[in-house]
From TrEMBL:
The keyword Zinc-finger does not apply. The chain crosses the membrane at residues 7-26, 54-72, 84-101, 107-125. Pfam families: DUF6326. It comes from Shimia isoporae. The keyword Thylakoid does not apply. This is DoxX-like protein. Keywords: Membrane, Transmembrane, Transmembrane helix.
């Protein structure tokens, strides 16, 4: 797949990352509306997993990687953005699978997130990057 304007593809990828991040955020906020989730959090556990500082740091790193996918898709050179998207999308899929959906609505959010990450990977795979000089010449 070839795109005449690699900058336009970077914008599309950024929007897909934003869509995925918002799905993750909304799924988390949605869970907080259930009293059982709040009670479980107050015990220091979530989905049967003990919360620890180390686990929270890992979660923070994963969230930051997703946000980097969002930013770098638009602001990094296309060759760097392409590689970053190819690297981050599978990691995001693994993170979604590792979060183990616990109820039917979680499965809906997880499915949408996984499909979105697959589309990000597919678009990045087909992203033909050229040096910035060639892109500028074609645009004029």
């Amino acid at each position: 797949m070839s795109y005449k304007n690699p900058l336009l593809l970077g914008t599309k990828l950024s929007l897909l990352w934003l869509f995925a991040i918002l799905n993750i955020l909304f799924r988390d906020v949605h869970e907080l509306t259930m009293s059982s989730t709040i009670e479980e959090i107050l015990t220091g556990h979530l989905n049967g997993v003990a919360m620890s500082e180390g686990l929270l740091v890992v979660g923070a790193i994963i969230v930051e990687l997703l946000l980097l996918g969002f930013l770098f898709s638009s602001f990094a050179r296309p060759s760097i953005a392409r590689r970053l998207n190819l690297f981050l999308a599978p990691i995001a899929i693994l993170g979604t699978l590792a979060s183990r959906p616990s109820d039917p609505d979680d499965f809906i959010f997880a499915a949408i997130e996984i499909v979105t990450f697959c589309v990000i990977w597919w678009l990045a795979w087909g992203w033909e990057t050229k040096p910035l000089e060639e892109t500028a010449i074609e645009a004029s």
